[in-house]
Amino acid sequence: MAGLAGFESTKGGAVWEPKQTGKGGDRKDLESNDKSYMIGWYLGAKTGIGANNSTLHEFRLQEVGDTAHIVGDVDENTKKISIWGTGVLDSMIADGLTPGQGCAIVWKGKQKPKSGSGKPYHIWDVMINPSMEPIQVGEVANIPAGGPSDMNLDDAVGEKVEGVAATNGDDDDLPF
Known about the structure:
The chain has helices at 87-96, 153-156; strands at 14-16, 20-21, 28-29, 37-49, 54-64, 70-71, 80-84, 102-111, 121-128, 143-144. By secondary structure, it is mainly beta.
């Protein structure tokens, strides 16, 4: 298969999911703990995915607190891992990270709204470490769900994800 050398599969990949395990009726909510974190470099986001118009943030993984939170296999060459966005996480990443920047993402659990009514929401911390050397990011940043043919990739590299928090329907449901 020398003709396929250098190609990577576009299917699935690894997802960091510290909030829950299983799907649908088999879903079990998890509790946050001191291992509910991942450290790596932000690569960008794919937006507008599925019926909920979800966002999938992509990272190059350096370390994860609990490997049981990884769904799928992390490619040993690219170390790429994704996180499904929530309204809070999408806003924090859009406001605090640029592609190539080293960071830690910490899931701190769920919190009820201060008003007392409404659905609990996920609490995150997005942290940067200036001592982590930035990495060069290719054409990953801000690719819409339709793929690169829907946009000019030269304009996308280095942009932040804008306005995705307002479009995320149900933060607890994975878009598949």
